[in-house]
Every structure is written in C-alpha cells, then in structure tokens.
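S1.2 Input.
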Amino acid sequence: MDHSKKVTVQILNAFVENSKGGNPAGVVLNADGLSDKNKLEISKKVGLSETAFVSKSNTEDFKLDFFTPNKQIAHCGHATIATFSYLKQLGIIKTDNSSKETIDGRRKIKLTGDFAFMEQLAPNYIDVNYKENLILKSLGLTKNDLIPEASIQLVNTGNSFVLIPVKNEKVLKNIIPDFDLIDEISEVFDLIGYYVFSIDIENNKNDATSRMFAPRYGILEEAGTGMAAGPLACYLFDILKIKKERFYIQQGKYMREPSPSLIIVDLDIENGNIKSLMAGGKGVLKKELIIEFEI
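S1.3 Output.
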C-alpha cells in the first residue's frame, strides 16, 4: 500500500527589487489536511528558509503556519508577503485589507496592487551591551567597526533580532560570521538571528542595507527578512533619531550569491511613539514544485 501523498508548492520571490532578486519562499495553498509533521517534512524537501502553509481560519481571512527546514516559527515576513501578494494576483483576495491567524495571534494585512504589507507590533528594546564583545567576536568585528554612540540592541516587533549598526558598507560586506557562536548567542537571547546594517550606503534612495544571519533556524544568510526590517526601521526612528514614517531597507546585496531585496516599512506614529508598523513588498512567482511526502 502506498503511504505517500503529493502536494503542490509555489515558489515565490518576496521583496523583489525592481522585479529582480528577492527572497524565495514556499507557499502551499489549501493546507487544511496537513499535519505539523507533514508540513515539516514538506519544508525540508522544499529546502528554502521558510514555507508558508495556508488553511482556513475561524477568526481571520486565512490561517498561516510557517516552517523552516527544522522547526515551526511564529511569524515569517517574506513568506507572508509572498502568500498575500500571490493570493491577490490570483484574485482570491479582492479588497485592499486582509488578515492572518498565526500561532502567535492575528495580524492585519494591507494590499496595494501586488504589494502586500504585514502588521507588526510596537517595538520592545532590550539592552544586550553586556554581551557586546562576544557578539562582535561572532562577526569578526571590533568596536571600531560600529557606528559611534550607536548601541547593539535586541529589538522585538513579533520576533527577536539583535541589531548591529556598522559604520559603512565595506564593514558590512567583509563580515566573517562564526555561525556556531551566533547560534550559541541566539539560544541565550531566544533570537531568530542577527540583523547587521549600515546607513552609510551608495544608494541614497534606500535608508539602510543589511545582512541577516540565523543559523539557529538553519538559515546561514537570508536575502529578505520582513520580521527583521521592521525592528530596524524602529531602531532608525527611536535610536538613531531618523524621524521618518517610511523606510526603505535593502538586504541580500552582500550574500555569497547576491539577491538584493527591498523591504518597505511604514511606521504608525502616535504622539512621537511607534504604535505599530507594516512591512511589505512584492512577491513574484518563480516556479512550481510537486513534493511527495509520507502520510
């Protein structure tokens, strides 16, 4: 008796910059009949940093579950953007507002054409300066490589990332990550990973360029991370005092195989404080996979 089943996985690049680059995510529609075990097996076979599984929700428009090749996570920015951009392109979503249910609650989704924007929470900051030397060591950096007077911070708008402000693109490009040490530090602080960035950049249309390392989740480096770009926009506003309501965050430029991504973050400011934010971009369908898995 055959105990296997097949599922169709759409591969979309989210946060494309000028319709190029971006961060690939798997999207599985009509995933109601899949168990968590099935989803993890499918995600491993897809082999991307995250795959989103879309099913019916009793409270929101859709329920989304996110799996890396080794575990489930609460939120994933680029897989959310890929999913909702694709649903809008298919005509399944016909309005400019939608919502998702996740294992960590509900989030609003806004759509503008093929662009999708995902709600994140007001930022929570945690000082991690007592681990500064170890964090710098894990990236092959020194204190002189940082922006003067700008602190390393843990920032959470739904997921936790350590944000590391480096003084220019050259420093960012030449980082040599010690993934084992990054993994250890990520365990201590319960991080998704590191988000290293510079605001001293060539492209003055963007506000920052960045790199994301998340070995704890099986992601050595990622091309576009909406759940990290949100915290970065908050850092730029609150810590570096760049008082804007929209930020353009580039990522993926300095990967071993470059895949430049562009993440747009809109801040909802009330009485000078960030109340919430929306991070988004566009998803472009690249290919379709048929995955066989055990039932």
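S1.4 Remarks. The chain has a mean pLDDT of 94.
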